[in-house]
Every structure is written in C-alpha cells, then in structure tokens.
Design brief:
Strand content: over 45%
Strand order of the largest sheet: 1-8-3-6
Distance between the termini: 61 Å
Shape: rod-shaped
CATH superfamily of the domain at 77-199: GOLD domain
Number of strands: 8
Order of helices and strands: HEEEEHEEEEH
CATH class of the domain at 77-199: Mainly Beta
Oligomer: single chain
Length: about 260
C-alpha cells in the first residue's frame, strides 16, 4: 500500500520535471524568422499623357490658269492700181463758117499713171473740119496768130480718132476750127475722155477669235490641325502588399499556432 503511493508520486515528479525541462528548452530557443505579408502605404509617381489639339489658319496666294476667248481684229493693207475714166466732152455742135469753138479742162497729172486723153469726132453736116489740142501756152499763141505746136492736129477731115498724153499739169483746149471755110457751116459730133490709173491702198479687216490662257491669283485658306502630347508627373499614396519578416520565439510561434503575422 505504502509502496504504490510512493510510485505515483515518482511519476508526477517525473512529468513535472520533464515539462520544466521543455519549458526551459523552449525559452532558450533562439528567435526564429517568420515571413508575413502586410499592408503598407507607399508613394507612387505616375506619368499621365495629355493631348492638346490646336487649329491654326493660314492663307496663301495661288496662281491658277484659266482659259478665255478673246476677239481681236487684224488689218491687212496692200497697194492696188485703180483705173479712173471721165467723159470730158460728149456733144453735137454747129460750127459756123469762119469761126471755131473750143472746150478747155484743167488736168492735174500728179499721182496719176498712164494718163491719157482720147476721143473722136465726125462731121455730120458739111464736109470736113480741123481739130486742135493745145495746152494753155499753145492756145494763147494760137489765138494770137503765133506759131505753136499742138498736141493733136487732125487736118481737114470728116472723122478722126486721137489719143495724146498730157505731160504736165495745165489747162488743155480742144478746138474745132472752121475758120478756113467761107461757105459751109459744119455740124460735128465729138467725144473726149480722160483716163488714168492711181495707186490706192486697200485695207481689209478680219475679226477672229482665239483662246488664250491667262494667270489669275486666288487666296486659299488652309486649316492646320496639330496634336501636341505632353506628360504630367503626378504622385499618389496607395496601399501595397509587402513581404515582411517578423522574428518571434518558438514558444510564441507555437502558442499562437503559427499566426504571428499582424491582421490586415
């Protein structure tokens, strides 16, 4: 009886001794590291792009070419010979015995080509008559009975055709002379014509159209759009997860069941 009581006391003593040893061992165990994830505040720097759109207006001159129709005239000129003819005498006259009749005309030879006077006469009553043609000087001499040379002298004929060429500007006389006849009056048909050529300038105007290209300046407005991108640096505070190492004793680790990290 007394032997059993003593054995029981020995067992308790052994257990308590063992527990004390364990406590001493655990207390003497070095602190061990434990990795934990914790929330911390951190300052983050960010870059934010910013787009700025600007519109500019500019103007500049531009040369364009346009077609247009023009109306224009061209004048052409050339020399041309123009004939001219004028009837000076066309008459039937009676010339009495011992008398004469005459016509005179002023003839300007300037600017005239192939100038000539031509004509004819015929005696319709009577037998014959004489035709003289003088210039002013010759006529004056003939009228005063002086000697002179006529341009035309037909003699006593019943009909006659003549042509002469005035060589200077003057009065020219056409005379039917019946002074030699003392018995017979004469009836005469006479025709005298002046003819010449002149050089005249002929002109001709032509109206035509043409298409031409002409430059024209216009002003053009251009809208210039540009996009400018800039970067703005900003900072902000955020919570981040960080790995942290806590150092705890093995006893604390065991007593807390391994949950030694702070609550988030």
């Amino acid at each position: 009886m007394s032997g059993q009581v003593q054995a029981k006391k020995s067992y308790k003593k052994y257990v308590l001794s063992t527990f004390a040893v364990v406590i001493i061992i655990l207390a003497a165990t070095p602190i061990i590291p434990v990795r934990c994830i914790a929330k911390e505040q951190a300052l983050i720097t960010t870059v934010e792009p910013y787009a700025n759109v600007t519109t500019n207006t500019r103007q500049y001159p531009t040369t364009v070419y346009k077609e247009r129709t023009e109306i224009f005239q061209t004048t052409t000129s050339w020399p041309q010979t123009a004939p001219y003819q004028q009837n000076l005498v066309d008459d039937k006259v009676a010339v009495e015995t011992m008398k004469s009749i005459y016509w005179f005309f002023f003839v300007d030879v300037l600017g005239k080509q192939n100038l000539k006077i031509f004509g004819d006469f015929s005696v319709e009553a009577g037998r014959d008559i004489i035709l003289y043609v003088f210039d002013q000087k010759g006529f004056n001499s003939w009228a005063s009975g002086g000697a002179t040379t006529p341009y035309v002298s037909s003699g006593k004929v019943g009909s006659y055709s003549f042509t002469f060429y005035p060589d200077h500007t003057d009065n020219y006389y056409f005379i039917l002379d019946n002074r030699y006849s003392i018995l017979t009056n004469k009836v005469v048909s006479i025709s005298v014509t002046l003819a010449y050529e002149t050089v005249v300038t002929r002109t001709q105007t032509l109206t035509t159209t043409r298409t031409v290209t002409v430059p024209e300046t216009i002003t053009t407005t251009v809208f210039d759009t540009r996009t400018i991108t800039t970067q703005t640096v900003t900072t902000k505070t955020v919570e981040v997860d960080v790995n942290r190492t806590n150092y705890v004793s093995l006893i604390e680790y065991m007593l807390k069941g391994g949950k030694v990290c702070p609550l988030p």
